[in-house]
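PROTOCOL LOG
Step 1. Enter all chains and additional molecules of the complex.
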Amino acid sequence: MWGRRVDGQVLNFYLAGINNQNFLMRDRETGSYWQQVSGEALAGPLKGSRLTRVSSDELVWSRFRAEAPEGSVLLGETDREHTDDYAADWEAQIQRAPTVIDTTATPLAPRTLILGLEQNGATRAYTAARVREERVVHDELGGVAILLWAPDAGSVRAFERRIGQEPSAMFEGSGERLTDDATGSTWDFTGCAVAGPAVGQCLRRVDLLLDFWFDWYVYHPDSGIYGEPGA
Amino acid sequence: MMNAAPRGRARWLLLSIFASIGALATVVAPYYVMRPFAAQDPGALAMVLTVARQAPWLLALCLTAGLFAAVRTWPGGSWTRWPRRLFATLAVLLIGAAAYGSQINLFEQMFAPLAAPRYVAASEAKLADDEVVLAVALGGAARAYSVRVLAYHHVLGDELGGEPIVVTY
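Step 2. Run joint prediction.
Step 3. Record the structure below.
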């Protein structure tokens, strides 16, 4: 998700091409071409410009509704023709689709779903399956202590484990609440303390990108993989 | 003097051919390089993106050349001119068709954008509890986009909390 104001100009994008199985967008205002996954303009008057990333979450609907009852949601088509067909076995179809990026030198299959993190120039991919299985993942990336938390099968967030002066608190628990070992406080999935001495504090959110491994690998060829040697 | 006329004719014939090939290449090359299940070479991609960006000028040039060749082919009363006239006319039609085709973006046709995105309050929406959504919070406003809907359209322009954003999936 990207901000679409560039140098004070609001751009309107449409899908206009493909580059190694990631979409190119074109803006109507300048005719520049942009890579969807990196937000970088590849051609046209704005070549070299970058869109500003807007942080977004993948959540299950019930969680969004609980966290943002005043929020709104995009409606599906009234013409349901596309989406219904599409939903049924879309994931399965996608898994079978061929890829063009050579990932044979890596331990993951090209269409493995990963969560990509980038901190201070260091990048690491966490397979979505493993994070969902472990639910709470402690790690360190680019000198930043990281917490990945997947409380249900469709929601995941990443935070920095710093609480006040403690740069790398450890968290314990499962489901909807975690407790940290530095202050003994209880934290909810928004990353804020709901009980204990840290109440009123929130952990810093860390952006993560849900992507296919091959796509992450194209743009982050030096990326490590969580749980693999050399990560 | 006897050779001048055939050489002149060949010249306009060649111009018709080159203009047609140029017009076709302008339209087809971007799709050829951006084949969905092929790897894209950065150099080739940069080239066809330039071609795509300059397509209106390139096609106008081809069309002008094609028309010019047809006009120059036309004069004279002899019936033997008709094959050449027909060829020149077909070339102009072909270039015209290419110019028209260049206005159609097949990628956009394939993944039609949502014509009029509509939003409802979270309290009134009827999504399944476990449906996965992309959620964003900006300027005090929160909005969710169903992955099921986004996966078909891929690109959606929106504005949230006063900020223009583009939702991609």
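Step 4. Note key features.
Chain A touches chain B through 61 residues (CB under 8 Å).
Chain A is about 15% helix and 35% strand.
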